[in-house]
Amino acid sequence: NKLGFDQQIAALSRSCSYHLRDLRRIRPTRNFHTANVIATSLVQSKLDYCNSLYLNLPAHCINKLQVIQNNLARAITSKRKFDHISPTLRSLHWLKIRERINYKIISLTYSALQSGKPHYLRDLITLQSTRSTRSGSFITLSRPPASKLKISNRSFYYMAPVLWNSLPAHLRQPAPPSSDNSGQNNTLALSRNKFLSQLKTYLFKFSHPP
After folding, report:
1. pTM given for the model
2. Which of 70, 146, 154, 194 could form a disulfide with 56 if both were Cys (CB 3.0 to 4.6 A apart)?
3. Could you check whether the bond before residue 118 is cis, i.e. omega within 30 degrees of 0?
4. Which residues, 6 or more positions from 101, have their beta carbon under 8 angstroms from its beta carbon?
5. Which residues of the chain have pLDDT under 70?
6. Gap between the Cα atoms of 150 and 131, Å rounded
7. What is the pLDDT of residues 171-205, one digit of tens each?
8. Measured in Å, how far apart are the chain's first and last C-alpha atoms?
9. What's the rounded Cα separation, in Å, for the pair 74 and 136?
10. Which long-range contacts does 34-43 make (Cβ < 8 Å, 24+ apart)?
11. What is the pLDDT of residue 148?
12. Which parts of 20-75 are beta strand (E)?
């Protein structure tokens, strides 16, 4: 009745812990690559599943999810319980939980802008008129007014423009006008693969500051 995620995160933690115990048990007989594939398939996939719903959860909830990822990194790399984990996460090239959530929201926003699908998300975002921005050289979204309800400010409708407009200009470059009759009217210049690659590079510095 409080629309909290404590019970869901507790259940997720139990499920991941079960797989982590098995991974630690077999880790001495598996090489790093195999252990990494198992970890990604069985545990990291659970952390990423519908993780956009975790957007802007209280820090204590995000920290519980981060503990799972930290333990997963230790299991893969055979680190001890109290070894400093940040260098390990960096070496694995993993975004931390908060940045993984932002990555999901921004990638959904990209898809909605580029393809117009899914329609139920595309209808929630509005391109800002170039005349009302400092520069018309990149794609900016209109930001809705903040609500007094905290749960409303966790919605895609509110947070997608906030996260999108915080991206550097090179990720928001508009596509050049189409000169053919292909019927494709892309909004953004970068292809999906290039956008996601550069987005991860951008978010990585927030997960692992230099």
Report:
1. 0.90
2. 154
3. yes
4. 51, 52, 54, 55
5. 1-3, 130-136, 178-185
6. 31
7. 999 988 765 555 566 899 999 999 999 999 999 99
8. 42
9. 46
10. 35/75, 35/76, 36/76, 36/92, 39/72, 39/75, 39/76, 43/16, 43/19, 43/68, 43/72
11. 74
12. none
- Both structure tokens of 186: 């892309």
Written as one letter, the residue type at 61 is C
> How many residues would you count in the chain?
210
d(CA 81, CA 9): 21
Q: Where does residue 103 rank: exposed (0-12), middle (13-18), buried (19+ CB within 10 A)?
A: buried
List Cβ neighbours of 151 (8 Å cut-off, separation of 6 or more): 3
| Interatomic CA distance for residues 121 and 119, integer angstroms | 5
pLDDT at 151: 73
Identify the pLDDT of residue 178: 67
**Tens digit of pLDDT for each residue in 124-147?**
999 987 654 455 689 999 988 877
